Amino acid sequence: MGDEVRAWRDGRVGRIVLDRPRALNSLTHGMVLDVRAALEAWAGDDAVRVVVLTGAGERGLCAGGDIRAFHDDAKEGGAGTRAFFRDEYRLNALVARYPKPYVAVMDGITMGGGVGVSAHGSVRIVTERSVVAMPETRIGLVPDVGGTWLLSRAPGELGTHLALTAGSMTAGDALLCGFADHFVPSARLPDLLTDLTDSPVEDVLARYAEPAPTAPLAGQRAWIDACYAADSVEEIVARLTAGGVPEAKQAAEELAERSPTMLKVTLAALRRARAHGSLEESLTQEYRVSCAALAHHDLVEGIRAQVVDKDRNPRWSPSTLAGVDERTVSAFFGPPADGDWSIA
């Protein structure tokens, strides 16, 4: 293990801690490889009955991938980031099909790549501090790490709304949208983790899990379903603007700040993911789309505006939805220039 992932056996539990708290445990390539190595080692170890993933520090499990590194690498051709994507998505698939209970504690900020290493697990715990999101469109990217698979299966059009706006979910929302399974108050997590060392997962959950808190998104279903069922981003924006609902108007304003290209590609990716038969199929599609995004102007520009210069004023190209044609969108779903890749 490197310095940014701690992995050890604690009784019957294999513990993995993402240990980069000053960066909100954002994933580096080395961290991805270390987590995978631990999971592979424990898969055949009879002494390990359950795996538990947590994040170091008090702020969250994981804020995603190291996007500043993406920015720098993209300007040099992006080979390192493409390799990161390949290994990250393989890890996401491994989490989803892991042969033992995989308990992900999604306490605090859990976004992007953090969702990828947690929300595909078999036991997903949220707390009152959880903030769960796929924020990729904020930086000129498209939801990945299996996010299109999860979002496309959320009730109604909630996933479309969350994907396009890069909106956040509370614990209740994450449970409603299928990103989590159980609610446990954060104060009870230390005892829960201790009990897992000598008790079956289902027994421990029965002692600590509490009823799901209110999901704010549940009360927004009517206008979200009506607006986001449209077949184009332009029509979605028109419906949001014309509906007379303050929250819908706010959503339209948020979409106006996103990359027009990535909004259209995101909508196409979600619609295609609805027809996929497996997470692996969605991950394969996401690899194609992510590689194409890596070569597009808007990713470097979006990260520059949000993370590097922090002026919050990205200059998208094209700057309008009308400037993005279907041929441009379709090109994102073709094989990458360095060869196709599949984990299906």
What is the radius of gyration computed over CA atoms, rounded to a whole number of angstroms?
Answer: 20 Å
Describe the largest sheet: 6 strands, mixed
CATH class of the largest domain: Alpha Beta
**Helix share, percent:** 40-55%
> What is the total tally of β strands?
10
Taken as a percent bin, the fraction of beta residues is 5-15%
Task: Describe the 3D structure.
Strand 1 (about 5-10) and strand 2 (about 15-20) form a beta hairpin. Helix 3 packs antiparallel against helix 14 (about 280-295), helix 10 runs antiparallel to helix 11 (about 235-240) and helix 11 runs antiparallel to helix 12 (about 245-255). The chain folds into 2 domains: about 5-210, 2-enoyl-CoA Hydratase, Chain A, domain 1 (Alpha-Beta Complex); about 220-330, no CATH class. It is globular and about 60 Å long. The chain is about 45% helix and about 10% strand. It has about 350 residues and is α/β, with parallel strands linked by helices.
